[in-house]
């Protein structure tokens, strides 16, 4: 447990003020116990993963911030795996591929944890997490833990119906038999494309906006003239317009101002309302993080 822990160390954007208390649970039971005690004491509590899709506030966060990165339990089955929420998605993709199992080729270069990947239905190259999920174990705001089968919740493009209602603690995934060398080659190609087309060398949180139906958010933002423009330390990447990078100690306020300016301009020029993929955690909220739409 750490007091006044810098939130920017928990975010791939490297943005955020001090958290009053940060705790890394060592097990699902540990997490659940801390969560329930915080709720009973009416202490603000929230849960995050690897911070690859989140924007923390400049003023920091009160209460307890639970980080799932120590929840890395894994159990292999017959073309299935049961894995805890803090396990790294990219690592799991590599391990699945090494076994000659197909289904996570798209995920080799995606940062973040399994829990976060399912919660936002992370995807790339036309594939996403929805195709692999058999079941999930979830934590709800009242502290209840529920196991849900795949038909008890919904996925859509960068969307899971559990989002803003519960958190993923553990999941069971299923894969298909494949040709090991072909799978590993496909992952290497996907990773090469990602490195070439995305600003991985600068602090960022991945794609900021969802692609609107039939179009690309990056294309719209670039066409509107935003590529390379900045507010404070936050800048629209010159490599990919759907990425906002932290160039010089950016503040959360800089990123939010840039997001709103882009949304307004694209709406005025093209009549399209861009929706964000990233989560913005607001000061003082309890339980579920608020989605920045």
TrEMBL record:
Keyword DNA damage present in the record's keywords: the answer is: no
The GO biological-process annotations, alphabetized, read as: cell division; cell wall organization; peptidoglycan biosynthetic process; regulation of cell shape
Q: What SUPFAM superfamilies does the entry give?
A: FAD-binding/transporter-associated domain-like, Uridine diphospho-N-Acetylenolpyruvylglucosamine reductase, MurB, C-terminal domain
Q: Which InterPro entries match?
A: FAD-bd_PCMH, FAD-bd_PCMH-like_sf, FAD-bd_PCMH_sub1, FAD-bd_PCMH_sub2, MurB, MurB_C, MurB_C_sf, Oxid_FAD_bind_N
Could you tell me which Pfam families the record lists for this protein?
FAD_binding_4, MurB_C
- The signal sequence is none
| Assigned EC number | 1.3.1.98
Its pathway?
Cell wall biogenesis; peptidoglycan biosynthesis
Q: Name one GO cellular component term.
A: cytosol
Name what cofactor the protein needs.
Answer: FAD
The cellular location(s) given in this protein's UniProt record come to:
Cytoplasm
The reactions it catalyses are: UDP-N-acetyl-alpha-D-muramate + NADP(+) = UDP-N-acetyl-3-O-(1-carboxyvinyl)-alpha-D-glucosamine + NADPH + H(+)
Domain FAD-binding PCMH-type: start-end pairs: 15-178
Please provide, alphabetically and separated by semicolons, the GO molecular function terms listed in this UniProt record: FAD binding; UDP-N-acetylmuramate dehydrogenase activity
> Which key words tag this protein in UniProt?
Cell cycle, Cell division, Cell shape, Cell wall biogenesis/degradation, Cytoplasm, FAD, Flavoprotein, NADP, Oxidoreductase, Peptidoglycan synthesis
Enzyme class name: oxidoreductase
Q: Which residues form the active site?
A: 158, 207, 277
> HAMAP family per the record?
MurB
Q: State the similarity comment.
A: Belongs to the MurB family.
Task performed by this protein: Cell wall formation.
What is the official name of this protein in its record? UDP-N-acetylenolpyruvoylglucosamine reductase
Task: Name the species this protein comes from.
Answer: Desulfosporosinus lacus DSM 15449
Q: Which gene encodes it?
A: murB
């Amino acid at each position: 447990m750490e007091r006044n822990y810098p939130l920017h160390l928990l975010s791939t954007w490297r943005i955020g003020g001090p958290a009053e208390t940060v705790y890394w649970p060592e097990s699902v039971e540990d997490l659940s116990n801390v969560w329930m005690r915080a709720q009973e004491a009416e202490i603000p509590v929230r849960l995050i993963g690897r911070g690859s899709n989140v924007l923390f506030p400049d003023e920091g966060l009160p209460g307890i911030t639970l980080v799932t990165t120590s929840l890395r339990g894994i159990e292999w089955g017959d073309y299935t795996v049961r894995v805890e929420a803090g396990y790294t998605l990219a690592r799991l993709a590599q391990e699945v591929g090494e076994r000659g199992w197909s289904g996570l080729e798209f995920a080799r270069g995606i940062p973040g944890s399994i829990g976060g990947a399912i919660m936002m239905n992370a995807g790339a190259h036309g594939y996403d997490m929805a195709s692999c999920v058999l079941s999930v174990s979830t934590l709800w705001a009242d502290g209840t833990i529920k196991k849900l089968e795949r038909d008890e919740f919904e996925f859509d493009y960068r969307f899971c119906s559990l989002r803003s209602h519960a958190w993923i603690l553990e999941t069971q995934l299923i894969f298909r038999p494949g040709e090991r060398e072909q799978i590993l080659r496909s992952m290497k190609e996907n990773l090469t494309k990602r490195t070439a087309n995305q600003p991985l060398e600068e602090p960022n949180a991945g794609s900021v906006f969802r692609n609107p139906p039939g179009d690309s958010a990056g294309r719209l933002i670039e066409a509107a003239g935003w590529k390379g423009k900045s507010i404070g330390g936050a800048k629209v990447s010159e490599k990919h317009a759907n990425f906002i990078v932290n160039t010089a100690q950016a503040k959360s306020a800089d990123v939010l101002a840039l997001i709103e300016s882009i949304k307004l301009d694209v709406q005025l020029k093209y009549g399209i309302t861009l929706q964000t993929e990233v989560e913005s955690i607001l000061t003082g909220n309890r339980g579920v993080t608020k989605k920045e739409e």
